[in-house]
Structures are given as structure tokens and as C-alpha cells.
Task: structure prediction
Amino acid sequence: MPRPPPIHTRGGIAGRLGDAHRRFWEGVAMEQNKRVVIAEDHTLLRQSLRTVLEGGAGLRIVAEAADGFEAIRSVEKHRPDLLLLDLSMPKLNGISVIKEVKRRNPQVKVLVLTIHDTEDYVRAVFESGADGYCMKDAEIGELLDAVKHILAGKTYLSPKIADRVLSGLLTPNSDPGRHPWEKLSQREKEILKLIAEGYKSGEIGDLLCISTRTVEKHRSNIMKKLDIHNIASLTAYAMEKGLPVSAAA
Result:
């Protein structure tokens, strides 16, 4: 196995990165130069992740994406070993990205990096085909451990939320139909997100490759299922559910 590149530490972030770097290489059992696409809409965090993965793990970042559609295109173009994906992405949310990536390139591993720590999100992520779930407030060492596990063919769930999620999964839901959010299809959730971001029906149709008439039909169904009848309230509801809402391009 090749020796890890040296890293100099003087405490602080550099020190933590150095410690994580050493822990990673102590037990690493994967090849160097694995190819990674980073999908994260915040530039500073995206650049920080590149530094950690390239400097701390010897991985090769082949592309970066700032929205869901760009993430899918980047995976299709570069065929990476791993997609590191923010769950809350502009234009197309992480759940939809996972499903599309796994449909087109099932061999690509997907590690979700997110602030969401509830059972509903964890369940949706793994049901969509993701290979791992890591919290954004995790230590650098945990992120590298998650990457190592997934590239070795294992599944990863952040220990911080594992017990809570398991408890929730084992607790029967006495009334699964009571939450309006659960009544929406995945396509309706995608359209709700785009409506909340300010996109018009024609623009949504172009983004999702469907007709304007189909978008309007979905919009009507969304409002009926949620019992919400104006765009401002739809936007507020989308934000409440953790969907990122940014200005339309």
C-alpha cells in the first residue's frame, strides 16, 4: 500500500485534519485516486470538502456541482466512484438526484452530507438508493471514515443519529396518512420546490422535460393535497419542510 503524503499540523483545523489523515491511512483498504464528484451549493463548503478529500484521503475530485441537475450531468460525464451529495440542493433536491444517478449509473456510490437528522429524511435517502448518510456537523475523521466504508462496499449511517433513527423505525406509526407531506409524490415534491424558488410553469416544464399542462396539473394536485391555495403559502410550506428555496435564475 502506498505511503500517505506528509501533512504538517500546528493545532486548530490543521491539527484535526492531520489527526484524521493519520487515522484514515492507518486502516485504509481502498485504492488511491478514486474519483469523486462533490455536489454542494455553498462554494466555501464545496472548496473545503475538496481540500479535505484530496489532502486527507488522496481522492481525486473530478467535478463540482452547485445544483441537482448539474450533479446528475457531472456523474453522467465523469462516471465517478463516489458522489458526495448535499441533500438540500437548488433546482432538484437530493432525493431526486440519488434516484436518477442510481438509475443511470447504479455502480456509483452516493454519500449524503446533510443538516437533516430526522427519521423521515434518513428513510427517504436509503430508500432512494444512497449508500451513506453523514451529518454536516461531523468531525473530519468521521467524514473520512464514511468515505472509506462506502468505497469498501459498506453502508454508513452517522452514529450521532443511528440510535434515534432505529428507535423511530421500530415504533409503529398509528396513522401514516395524517401528514399531508407524505401524500405528495416525488415528482410533486420536485415541482413544489421549483414553484417555491420562483420558477414559472413553463420554466419548470423545461427543467423537468414535461409539458406546461402537466406542470399545472401537478400544481393543482399539490394545492389540493396540502390544502394550500397560494404561492406564498406553498413557499412557506416548502421552507418548513427543509427544501432549499433560492431565487430562480
